[in-house]
Write a structure and sequence with these properties.
414 residues, mainly alpha
Length: 414
């Protein structure tokens, strides 16, 4: 080897293509590819394990027994990618339940996140550069409770035009609805492929799956970890779920006459229970549909990262990860605009009103409806003279309206 090393100390990297296997000529190797001591030290990856591991993960061999664990995939499961997904889901969920009329623009932030993860997963699967655990992480991140909610409303929009997500996927919104339904089919197809056995699918580092229950029980990881927690931790973790059950029981008891009016049988009426609770206690529905499932969703993803691919927590501010963070900006700005209304919203929650002994806003004599900004004197022909509403609307140039419990009321009572 010493005779092969040149005396020149200025060459640190291979001088050209002739230095690589397949290009090295059978002529004198010293003249065709001079090698220096600095070059040998530069190419020696065994000095530092991290350098060797980076080179190993460029194309990890199949069937090597997975000696170093899963290689990280920051484009799919990177720290900033996960944080961006959590923030986007949180902000868009708030807008879905409390400001759905402004969903036309911010709705696309969630769709961009879904498609970015699904397309990345599909492309790397085609090139056989994705492990099964990272495919599951990508599908889990894209298939959040909010995403499932959007899928359900997109299906409902086919025959039902008036619902919570009508501004985004309802009547007249054929293109975004089609985009959502395509994403749903895309997600289901990838999920089916990921669950196929190894002889019917192809993933990178399949030897890492042997004896690894994280892949098999990924969506049950929070429950498995819950069993091993101390008792006080179990009580703390289960308290939101227990309080939600109690809230549902109280809501049903308080609204039992509306759910089961006189003469109606007392058998379970799940749709009536859901409708009445949604109308009177929307916060309970938000916690049930979004908050608790989202908390479990985050726990499942983070548990999978911690137990199987902890190297994905490496903080590297790549362009893709930073760009993913900016996807959460539009819904965040919309939620910030709601901040001045947070105190009024919080003080009007049912359990807050129960503690403070206040009536619901707009329902008690102490909170009368606001007067219109100006008064209008009807002409000599009024309702008493037999004029119809349409005739009055043609006489009155402006409609005076104000919000009352989320609905607009006009002078004509329309």
């Amino acid at each position: 080897m010493d005779s092969f090393i040149s005396n020149s100390s200025r060459i640190v990297v291979p001088a050209g293509a002739q230095c690589f296997v397949g290009s090295l000529q059978a002529t004198n190797p010293v003249t065709s590819c001079p090698v220096t001591a600095d070059m040998v030290q530069f190419l020696n990856l065994t000095d530092h394990f991290e350098d060797y591991f980076v080179a190993y993960c460029l194309k990890p061999p199949q069937g090597d027994g997975c000696p170093y664990g899963y290689c990280p995939n920051l484009d799919v499961a990177g720290l900033f990618v996960r944080i961006a997904a959590y923030l986007t889901n949180f902000f868009v969920a708030i807008l879905v339940f409390y400001k759905p009329e402004d969903l036309k623009d911010t709705f696309w932030s969630q769709l961009l996140s879904i498609y970015a993860l699904l397309l990345t997963c599909a492309w790397t699967l085609i090139r056989q550069q994705l492990t099964r655990i990272h495919a599951i992480l990508a599908l889990a991140t894209a298939g959040s409770p909010l995403t499932v909610c959007i899928f359900v409303y997109a299906i409902r929009s086919i025959w039902e035009t008036d619902h919570r997500l009508s501004p985004a996927v309802g009547k007249g919104r054929l293109f975004p609805r089609s985009i959502v339904l395509i994403a749903m089919g895309f997600w289901i197809g990838l999920f089916i492929y990921v669950t196929l056995p190894s002889h019917l699918s192809s993933f990178q580092q399949e030897s890492c799956e042997q004896g690894n229950n994280v892949v098999k029980y990924f969506f049950a990881l929070p429950l498995l970890l819950f069993v091993d927690m101390p008792v006080w931790s179990q009580v703390l973790a289960a308290s939101p779920f227990l309080f939600t059950i109690i809230a549902w029981v109280v809501a049903i008891v308080l609204r039992r006459q509306e759910i089961w009016p006189q003469g109606k049988s007392y058998r379970p009426h799940f749709l009536d229970v859901w409708r009445v609770t949604e109308n009177h206690y929307p916060f309970i529905q938000f916690v049930t549909v979004i908050a608790i499932p989202t908390a479990y969703w985050i726990a499942a993803i983070e548990s999978g990262i911690r137990t199987a691919t902890s190297r994905d927590n490496t903080v590297i501010a790549t362009f893709g990860q930073v760009l993913a963070m900016f996807v959460a900006v539009p819904p965040m700005l919309e939620v910030i605009e709601l901040c001045p209304r947070v105190l009024a919203w919080f003080s009007n929650l049912c359990w807050v009103r129960f503690i403070t002994r206040r009536r619901q806003r707009g329902q008690g004599p102490e909170l009368p409806e606001p007067e219109p900004a100006f008064s209008y004197s009807f002409p000599s022909g009024s309702r008493d003279s037999g004029l119809s509403d349409n005739k009055l609307k043609s006489i009155i140039p402006l409609a005076v309206s104000w919000p009352s419990n989320g609905r607009k009321r006009s002078l004509l009572g329309a």
